[in-house]
Every structure is written in structure tokens, then in C-alpha cells.
Amino acid sequence: MQKIIKITILFIFLFVIGIFYISLTRETNYNTSSLINKETPEFKIISFDNSNFYTRNDIKKNNYTLINFWASWCAPCKIEHPVLMKLSQKKNLIILGINFKDKESQAKIFLSELGNPYDLLAKDKNGKHSVKFGIYGIPESILINKELMIIQKFVGPLSVDDYNNIIKIIE
């Protein structure tokens, strides 16, 4: 009986060590490279003013669409906002802004104070749509072409370098 207990304890010990080793050797950085050149997921998301829904068909009409997940409570979203405002001036790019888990009144104040760069504005009140797009945190942006393929994903606030990269792609 004592031999069985010792073998069981040894097995449990080796199992715990094995799990610990596997967890140490796993890649833990958030990597979105697997999404590049994949098709955009199906979605039906309500517009910010609750008047209609946006689907993939709405963005298929455009040469390029930048989907930007943002919120008024997100400090990095304020940092990237001037970049979005500059991008909104480009004719062959449509920006779909998806307001993430935000209070509608605060989101309206955010846009009225900083400007509204979005051609289409939707809301993801409970965060379900962000999961479909592989959103890990906000802000995150996804550049999509006319064939609904993900060209690039930007994790964190868009920078001047990201702006230049997007311009190079769409022009």
C-alpha cells in the first residue's frame, strides 16, 4: 500500500513539474500575425445611434476599411485620435469606429471634443464583437481590403509610423 502512495505522489509531482515546464516554454506575447491574410469574420453590429446594423457588406463596398475599437475611458485612444483624424481625410479609406463597453454619453462627449473621424460608427456594449475580431484590448485597429481580407492589425494606439504604413498600403 505504501508503495502505491509513493508512486502516486511521484506521479503527481512529475505531472506538476511537467505542467510548470510547459507553461514556462510557451509563447506568452500577444501575437496577431496569424490573422493577416485571413478573411474578416461575419458580423452584425448595431450602429451607435441604434438606427441600423453594419455587416461585412457595408465594408465590402470600400477599397479599404480601418476598423478601430475605442472607448472614451481609454487614455491610449485619446493619444491615437489625431492619427485617426488625419486618416479620415483619405478618400480611399473608410473608418468604422466600434465603441467598446462605453457609456453613450461619455462617447458622445469624447467625439464632440476631439472630432469624429469615423465614417461608420457602431457600438459593442458588452464586448462580444471584439472577441470575433480577436481584440485583446483597446485601442486596436484592423485594416481590411475590398475582398474582406485582413491586411494588418495594429495593437495599441496608432502612431505616426502606423499612419505612414497605412498610407503606403492604401495609395
Mean pLDDT: 88
Unreliable spans: none
Strand portion? 15-25%
CATH architecture: 3-Layer(aba) Sandwich
Q: How are the strands of the biggest sheet laid out side by side? A: 5-4-3-6-7
Radius of gyration: 21 Å
How many helices does DSSP assign? 6
Largest sheet: 5 strands, mixed
Using DSSP, what is the number of strands?
A: 7
- N-to-C CA distance: 75 Å
Instruction: Return the CATH topology.
Output: Glutaredoxin
What is the share of helical residues? 40-55%
**What is the CATH superfamily classification?**
Glutaredoxin
Count of discrete domains? 1
**Given the helix and strand composition, which structural class is it?**
alpha/beta
CATH class: Alpha Beta
Describe what this molecule looks like in 3D:
This protein is α/β, with parallel strands linked by helices and 171 residues long. 40% of the residues lie in helices and 22% in strands. The chain has a single domain (32-170), classed as Glutaredoxin (3-Layer(aba) Sandwich). The chain has helices at residues 2-25, 56-60, 75-87, 104-114, 128-132, 160-170, and strands at 44-46, 53-55, 64-70, 93-100, 120-124, 140-145, 150-155. A five-stranded mixed sheet has the order 5-4-3-6-7. The protein has a two-stranded antiparallel ribbon with strand order 1-2. The longest helix has 24 residues, at 2-25. The chain starts with a helix and ends with a helix. The relative contact order is 0.19. The model has no long low-confidence stretch (mean pLDDT 88).
